[in-house]
Amino acid sequence: MVCNHPTLIKAAERNNKNNKVVPLFYYMGKAKAEQLTPESLFKGLSLAFTGGNIGAPSNDITKIWNSGEITDEELKAVKWLVMQVNFVIDYAKTLYKPTVPEYAEKIIKSYVKKKVPHFFLYAKGKTEKQVEDSNNSTVNRIKKIFPKRNLNFNFTYGNIGKFDYRVLLNNPASVGSYEVYTHYRSIVGKLDFNKSTDRLADGDKSLYNYAAVYDDCRHRFYQWGYERGIEPSDLLDSLIVQIFTKNKTSKKKAFWAMFGDDIYKNIQKNISNSFIRCQRCKKRYLRVNSDCVCEKCRRLLDRRKRKMIICADCGKVVEINKDDRSPKRCVDCARKQIANSKIVWRIINTG
Q1: Do 250 and 327 have their domain in common?
Q2: Under 8 Å CB-to-CB from 233, ≥6 apart: which residues?
């Protein structure tokens, strides 16, 4: 076990008791001692790449575990396959893999004819046609715990209010620097993702390691400021002011990838539960009382002898006369309440 969680240990002990599982024991081969030469090293590497594929037996094990109720014969097949995997793993140094007996090969093949489990859709990028239907196996049940959700983000003015770039700053009094902006542009203008490439298992696709490239750019940007005695927070603040005021651009993918975590910390520091959106002008402000409007809008409403209230029924914010003490609802909800009251009164009167 690589985890000492009590629940996992309890489950392992329960399964061990039911299936009488004991540690596997078998003798493994050992390569003869030989002198290390370029030829022997090349031979070892070649054998490691040609005889060390554990994918097939590992997938066969997964197919059996995914088959539902595990019989004694299926458990025996799993034990044989586990042994086979261990021999394959050590093949490069032992140069030995046992030949599977015909009777064992026949039993194993009878249980691994199915497709790979349904969760390979997510673990290995398989298609619906390449996997079995979802069943009640352990890993497939995880999907039910985390159902797919359609997340709709609404960043409209009416929903989140007017954007203020100063919320992104560590120091709201910071000023922009064109020199900092020019240096940033010189870095992101030479992004080359081809220098960091990983091949996927199937060999026909490339997965670019974007994170490594962006991390390197971020390091070079801050290193440039360090050499000039500029604190990282001040350097980033100067860039933010410049990008959001004087050199505006909608293309900020590299900017967010490089500095998103740092800016998120600034946002957490600048925005509290009291930093809310004014229900009238939609700008954010620091609330110091129970009002739902900022100081500027409150003064404007006072001059007009108006005020804003939150409807007790629908939650809408409505503007009413300041001298009107009774209303706690918007017009529509107030009318509905009056209508419902009349209905209740009629029911009571008619008994």
Answers
A1: no
A2: 170, 171, 262
